[in-house]
Design goal:
The chain is α+β, with helices and mostly antiparallel strands and 291 residues long. The chain has 10 helices and 11 strands. The chain has helices spanning 67-79, 101-116, 123-133, 180-186, 191-194, 200-210, 213-216, 225-231, 234-244, 266-280; strands spanning 3-21, 27-46, 51-55, 85-90, 146-149, 154-157, 168-173, 221-222, 249-252, 259-263, 285-290. The strands form 2 sheets. Strands 1, 2, 3, 4, 5, 6 and 8 form a 7-stranded mixed sheet that branches. It is globular. The relative contact order is 0.17. It binds cytidine-5'-monophosphate. The site of cytidine-5'-monophosphate has 11 residues, from strand 2 and helix 4.
Length: 291
């Protein structure tokens, strides 16, 4: 095989409970990741030597500051592969959005190159590389919802939630981003949010597995909303609007700024594609995506 194309999905955090700051500067946390079937596309081709990365979005770097490039370099180096690769990234997921788009791209690059070169690496080794590249990348090496702990890189896959069967996400990116390091830094001003009690993630998972989304809704929680909603109160208005229009649950994802709402019926999420701009004007990006 010399070329390979793979979709690269995104995620939301149904819960992000930060438990405290660690000596290494990262934050200990528990989070519930859920895959979202909205995709970038990655194309891999064995070619020449070195790494040639191209991207449909001219605003994104294509050098070693791009996670795809770093993932490819680490994969080829660790596997001792001398051959080169050409990689094209077609970007649809908004960047720096709390949707894990870049993390997903890095994970799919590891999986894609492993496939392209005949599976030289066991999954356990891909997991080590993924964790060295960033906190959210390991989640994307698999396809189920997951509980994650540590700094987010320790993944325990869980079965699909019966409470979300037939539901749809409405996702909105307002057009401004929130830097992840900024959100974590600012969290220091909110000691209660920075030092959460563990156990909330398992509680949410149990309720979602019990099958009642309305009963699970009060358990949705994101510590990083403390700094984010203070600086960008419009994000709280979005949530109020979604609730008023029938959303069962709504939350900012990750470090934001993307906010999502869960609707029991796909038609309710679809209707938001008109209602939302009607109330707030055209957003940076929005999508209605069945769970
Ligand atoms: O690992 P990742 O590159 O996604 O992290 C980006 C930044 O977010 C880190 O440099 C750190 O400032 C912050 N972070 C954190 N605790 C985590 C994950 C990320 O403090 N668990």
């Amino acid at each position: 095989m010399t070329t390979l194309q793979k979709p690269s999905p995104c995620k939301v955090n149904l819960l992000l409970n930060i438990l405290g700051k660690r000596p290494d500067g990262f934050h200990e946390l528990e989070t519930v990741f859920h895959p979202v079937k909205f995709f970038d596309q990655l194309t891999f081709e064995r070619s020449g030597n070195g790494i040639q990365l191209t991207c449909s979005d001219a605003a994104l770097p294509v050098d070693a500051s791009n996670l795809v490039y770093r993932a490819a370099a680490k994969f080829l180096g660790t596997a001792g592969i001398r051959e080169g690769v050409r990689i094209h990234l077609e970007k649809h997921i908004p960047v720096a959005a709390g949707l894990g788009g870049g993390s997903g791209n890095a994970a799919i690059t590891l999986l894609g190159l492993n496939e392209l070169f005949g599976q030289p690496m066991p999954v356990a080794q891909l997991q080590v590389i993924a964790a060295s590249l960033g906190s959210d990348i390991n989640f994307f090496l698999q396809e189920k919802p997951a509980l994650a702990v540590g700094r987010g890189e320790q993944i325990e896959a869980v079965e699909h939630f019966s409470a979300l069967r037939g539901a749809s996400f409405f996702l909105i990116h307002p057009g401004f981003g929130i830097s992840t390091p900024w959100a974590y830094r600012e969290l220091a001003r909110f000691p209660t949010a920075q030092n959460g009690q563990p156990g909330r993630a398992r509680r949410l998972i149990e309720k979602l597995q019990a099958g009642d989304l309305v009963a699970a809704a009060p358990e949705f929680y994101n510590s990083l909303e403390a700094p984010a909603l203070e600086k960008y109160p419009v994000l709280a208005l979005y949530q109020e609007f979604f609730r008023a229009h029938g959303a069962a649950a709504t939350l900012m994802s990750g470090s934001g700024s993307t906010t999502f709402a869960l609707f029991q019926k796909p038609s309710e999420a679809e209707a938001m594609l008109e209602k939302f701009p009607g109330r707030f004007g055209p957003p940076g990006w929005m999508a209605a995506v069945p769970v």
